[in-house]
């Protein structure tokens, strides 16, 4: 057995019979960039995530940023592999363990969408945030025209707290940002 297979067995969490959640680290920048290039058409209309990684150097910096968050206990990222291909991921950022707050984010390339992968992956991340790190409140923000993101937040039990009007300037447009949150006391356990 090769070493990388061994490490995937140790660090992978099964999301379904064909999908796994695994660490996503700077050494995987080439695989990450190839995925990000596939994801741009699905993700760019909604969030600038893929635009942060236009080339290999910036892709590595993006993953290094999250590695630094993890080391500083201010966030983390994990990738989703479907049938062995990286198709998206979930992350926490702006994490403040002392106050018990963090913000959640996620993305998928087209091939990963519609299988419940973010719902499953986010449940793992939320369990870690609430149970392992003892966080109290996780925020989820999205454009009010991002219906899939809203549906996922609601599926996970998040509550819509309000909408920040024309808050986000993106692609020359001032967009309304919906703010959702989930408190540790409100989690759906199934
Ligand atoms: C937001 C985004 C991650 C949601 O992807 P998604 O695949 O719809 O997310 P989920 O994991 O919640 O999956 C739900 C879909 O899987 C289907 N599904 C299949 N099996 C499922 C299961 N076991 N559990 C839940 N849903 C399941 C659902 O029916 C739904 O598909 P449908 O809407 O076509 O009916 C994706 O649309 C995306 O990357 N958008 C662009 C980037 C973005 O907006 N990121 C979030 C910014 S706030």
Structure description:
The protein has 190 residues and is an alpha+beta fold. It has one domain: Aminopeptidase, CATH 3.40.630.30. Helices cover 35% and strands 34% of the residues. It has five helices and eight strands, in the order αββααβββαβαββ. It has an eight-stranded mixed sheet with strand order 1-2-3-4-5-6-8-7, with helices on both faces. β7 and β8 form a beta hairpin. α2 packs across α3. It is globular, with a radius of gyration of 16 Å. The model has no long low-confidence stretch (mean pLDDT 95).
Oligomer: single chain
SS class: alpha+beta
Give a short account of the largest sheet: 8 strands, mixed
| Rg result | 16 Å
The name of the CATH architecture is 3-Layer(aba) Sandwich
H/E series = HEEHHEEEHEHEE
Distance between the termini: 35 Å
The total of beta strands comes to 8
Tell me the name of the CATH homologous superfamily.
Gcn5-related N-acetyltransferase (GNAT)
How many separate domains? 1
Low-confidence stretches: none
- Mean of residue pLDDT values: 95
CATH fold descriptor:
Aminopeptidase
Q: What form results from the Cα inertia axes? A: globular
Any idea of the CATH class?
Alpha Beta
Q: Treating each run of at least 4 consecutive H or I residues as one helix, how many helices?
A: 5
Task: Bin the strand percentage.
Answer: 25-35%
The helix content, as a percent range, equals 25-40%
Strand order of the largest sheet: 1-2-3-4-5-6-8-7
Cofactors, ions and other ligands in the entry: coenzyme A
């Amino acid at each position: 057995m090769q070493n990388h297979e061994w490490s995937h067995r140790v660090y992978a969490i099964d999301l379904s019979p064909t999908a796994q959640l695994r660490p996503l680290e700077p050494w995987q920048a080439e695989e990450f960039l190839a995925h990000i290039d596939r994801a741009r058409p699905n993700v760019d209309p909604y969030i600038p995530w893929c635009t942060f990684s236009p080339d290999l150097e910036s892709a590595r910096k993006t993953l290094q940023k999250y590695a630094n968050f993890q080391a500083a206990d201010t966030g983390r990222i994990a990738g989703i592999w479907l049938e062995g291909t990286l198709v998206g991921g979930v992350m926490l950022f702006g994490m403040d363990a002392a106050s018990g707050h963090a913000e959640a984010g996620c993305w998928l390339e087209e091939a990963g969408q519609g299988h419940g992968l973010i719902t499953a992956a986010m449940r793992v991340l939320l369990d870690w945030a609430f149970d392992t790190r003892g966080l109290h409140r996780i925020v989820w923000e999205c454009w009010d025209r991002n219906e899939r993101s809203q549906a996922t937040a609601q599926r996970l039990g998040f509550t819509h707290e309000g909408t920040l009007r024309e808050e986000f300037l993106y692609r020359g447009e001032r967009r309304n940002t919906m703010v959702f949150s989930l408190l540790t006391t409100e989690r759906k356990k199934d």
